[in-house]
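step=encode ok
step=design start
structure_in=
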């Protein structure tokens, strides 16, 4: 019994309290809820703008992808997970995964940008997303 209690305590200390994308609104510093982040995806000489919009639905963090170049206007992600300041978004039907680090302001109160990597069809491309009011395309 002591061993189980110790393992549970270690899991809580390590941040294992929230599974998947389940977060309480406002629980994350500089919450993603109700915000949109946009940036250019540059592959070779080509560049296309894309954006993720975030909301809380049913107690879980949800993301939607926007990209005019891909003809996508609000495709829901299949999974969104946050572990500390690491964000993971997966959309298997596009063979797509985005993994990024939330960069907070000096006070740790607001997300200034998300620095990450876009993985699609065996390619990895760095991607920086900045907050916007709405996708610009």
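sequence_out=
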């Amino acid at each position: 019994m002591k061993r189980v209690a110790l393992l549970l305590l270690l899991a809580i200390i390590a941040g294992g309290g929230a599974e998947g994308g389940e977060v309480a609104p406002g629980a994350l510093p500089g919450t993603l809820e109700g915000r949109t982040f946009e940036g250019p995806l540059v592959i070779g000489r080509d560049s296309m703008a894309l954006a993720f919009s975030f909301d809380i639905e049913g107690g879980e963090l949800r993301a939607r992808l926007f990209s005019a170049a891909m003809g996508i206007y609000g495709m829901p992600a299949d999974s969104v997970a946050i572990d500390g300041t690491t964000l993971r978004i997966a959309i298997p039907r596009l063979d797509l995964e985005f993994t990024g680090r939330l960069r907070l302001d000096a006070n740790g109160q607001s997300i200034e940008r998300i620095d990450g990597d876009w993985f699609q069809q065996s390619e990895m491309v760095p991607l920086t997303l900045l907050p916007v009011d709405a996708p610009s395309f």
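step=design ok
step=annotate ok -> The helical segments are 2-13.
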